[in-house]
Each structure stands twice: as C-alpha cells, then as structure tokens.
Design goal:
Blueprint: H1 3-6, E1 13-19, H2 25-39, E2 46-52, H3 64-72, E3 95-98, H4 101-110, H5 114-118, E4 120-122, H6 144-173
Parallel strand pairs: 1-2, 1-3, 3-4
Helix pairs in contact: 2-6, 3-6
Length: 174
C-alpha cells in the first residue's frame, strides 16, 4: 500500500513503524498493529504503515524469516514491500514508532520541528514490562529463533500501544 493510499480518507490517527531496512521489525509491527486495528473494527479510524531509515531494500518483500515468524502466529505479511521513510511524511503522521535508539536519533534529526521530533517514540516505551530494555534487537544477522523472539516483543508492545490509543480514538469517533 502506498503512503498516499494508506493515509487518504478520514483516519483520525496515523502511525508509521520505522526500523532500519523495513524488512524485519517494522513490517512485523505493521502487520500486528493492523490486525489489532482490524479486530477492533477501527480500520477507518487508524491508518498504519511502515518504513525504513535506509534505502537498501526498497521494493523488496520482508525477510523470509519475518514472513515465517508472522505465519507461525497466523499473520500474513506477504503483501509488504519495503520503503524508505520520507521526512515529508511528518506532517501527515501522529506517531512515528522506532525500534532502537539509532533509528530514534536518525528520525529526530530528520524532523524539522519540535512537534515532529515529539512524534518519534521507541516501541518498547509503550509497554511497562519491556520499557527498561529500550531497544528491540535487530534480528537480521541472527537466526529464525531471534525473529520469533522479536515478534513476541513486538506483539506485546504493539498490544500495549493499541490499548493506550484506542480510548482516545473511540472518543474521536463519537
């Protein structure tokens, strides 16, 4: 899905998950969070995309280990194609969720205003049980077990994030 298509219409809340190459962590979060939105019947209220800080994988599918980890949990990540984050998107986003402090530094450097910098948040900061960890490890140079572990971390944190924003979105739709 293109950025323009994802964010056209009347979405009340727009979120972008950003990792390094957009083939491992951020596609996991996009799929998991989109599923949470769908199951809550909030597809018209919350728009979700993902991107990477780098352009190495633009146009590629998610890493096969990402797809396998997602499939093992009942998710389908096959439609994903990697894209690079565009700083021009900040105006249209409410939240930019990153997976580690390196991505946080990069995105905050790309942000033109304090308001845009405030939109950049670490994923684990939304989950009190994982917040102290700070970073979600990059599984790219690891094995399938690490992809499963990262998906578990991501799922818990996405669920915590969704629980935090859901009441505000529901108020905005009434």
């Amino acid at each position: 899905m293109t950025f323009e298509r994802a964010f056209s219409g009347s979405a009340l809340f727009r979120i972008c998950f950003v990792c390094t190459g957009n083939i491992c962590r951020s596609p996991m979060a996009e799929v998991v969070f989109t599923d949470l939105v769908r199951r809550a019947g909030m597809e018209k209220s919350i728009a979700v995309i993902s991107a990477g800080t780098g352009d190495w994988h633009v146009g590629e599918r998610s890493d096969e280990r990402t797809l396998s980890a997602l499939a093992a949990q009942g998710y389908d990540g096959s439609r994903h194609r990697a894209r690079q984050f565009d700083p021009g998107w900040f105006d249209d986003l409410d939240l930019v969720v990153v997976f580690d402090r390196s991505q946080e530094r990069i995105l905050k450097a790309w942000a033109a205003t304090d308001q845009d910098r405030s939109k950049v948040q670490l994923l684990l900061s939304f989950d009190s049980e994982q917040a102290e960890l700070g970073d979600v490890p990059d599984p790219y140079y690891s094995d399938a077990a690490m992809f499963d572990h990262v998906l578990g971390m991501t799922t818990r944190a996405c669920t915590a994030l969704f629980r935090q924003i859901k009441p505000a979105i529901r108020q905005g739709t009434t």
